[in-house]
Amino acid sequence: MPIKFNVIPKKNPQKRDEPAKYYANIVGDGKTTLNDLAKHAGAMSTVSKADILAVLESTFSKIAEDIADGKIVYVGEYFTLQASGSSTGEEKEKSVTAANIKSVKAVFRPGKMIKDTLKLATFQKKA
Predict the structure, then answer these.
(1) Are 127 and 7 in contact (CB under 8 A)?
(2) Res. 30: pLDDT tops 90
(3) Residue 115: closest CA among 78, 82, 61
(4) Which domain holds residue 53?
């Protein structure tokens, strides 16, 4: 199934007087839930959907805990997750404390398998 996109105009913020250019903007089209993943894995193996769901829940819970502990989580050739954040600046190194951290987010880095699959992706303008 192709990846959907719509078309949006964007102005150059450095040249506001110039007309906008149009760009492809990839949009989500549907969703896959943890239940969907368990159902698919159950259909592909002899393990029940309930057992797979329990394993997935446990695995993702451990991933969340490890990211919160500052670990980089490597999930085979699939992806890597780690914490990242932004902070306010200080004049002196000694002045920087945990209070300077203003936001934290999870950084997702696709692995070889996902990168290779995306190279083969096709695209379709959303109607």
Answers:
(1) no
(2) no
(3) 78
(4) 32-66
